[in-house]
Amino acid sequence: MPEHRLASNATYWLGETYYVRNQYDDAARVFAQSYQKYPGGSKTPDSLLKLALSLSGLGKKQEACIALAQLKTEFPGGSSAVLQRADKEMTDLGC
Fold first, then answer.
1. Which of 66, 15, 65 is nearest to 37 (CA)?
2. CB of 19 within 8 A of CB of 54?
3. Residue 36 class from Cβ within 10 Å (0-12 exposed, 13-18 middle, 19+ buried)?
4. For the domain that residue 56 is a member of, what is the CATH number?
5. Which of 6, 31, 32, 35 has the fewest beta carbons closer than 10 A?
6. pTM, 2 dp
7. What single DSSP character describes residue 95?
């Protein structure tokens, strides 16, 4: 049920199931939906990070860099682990 208080978490974890199986197209789609549909959800920054990682997995470097920059802009006070991973990915991708 999309209105349930844990819907954003459930959507994130659905995307994660695709990501860990290297199904980056499906993962990117679900993480993008999670980011757009649940902008205030607890997993929104994580979804944006995983969207970037999925895009990177698809070889879409420019799009991945855009998602990482968006993460840092929208959630500058977010989880340090998420922001540190975003910094690492930006460095690795040469963003």
1. 15
2. yes
3. exposed
4. 1.25.40.10
5. 6
6. 0.92
7. -
